[in-house]
Amino acid sequence: MAEAARYYAENKARGEVTVVVSPRSPAEGMAEGRESVDEVAARALARALVDEGLNLSRAAREVSSRLGIAKNAAYEIVHSLEGDSEEELG
Questions:
Q1: Count of CB atoms situated within 10 Å of the CB of 68
Q2: Model pLDDT for residues 65-75, shown as the tens digit of each residue
Q3: Taking CA 80 as the corner, what is the angle to CA 43 and CA 59, rounded to the nearest 5 degrees?
Q4: Does this model's pTM top 0.70?
């Protein structure tokens, strides 16, 4: 968006301009140290489900179903818990 703003600040638009914006994947947000509210909620739910004894695959399906997020996004979030210490997971 910033690149387009800079370009059109210096150049006149000819015709229509279409900008397509997609949401960040959870992995992109986490890689930059930022998480959306949905990612924080998904991480908290995933942690709770794993603490209850669900395996990571089942927890990912539950996170996706309960929060209405894409299965691949839920999978990324849940499997990011693997890097957490056993103490943090309970």
A1: 9
A2: 998 888 998 99
A3: 60
A4: no
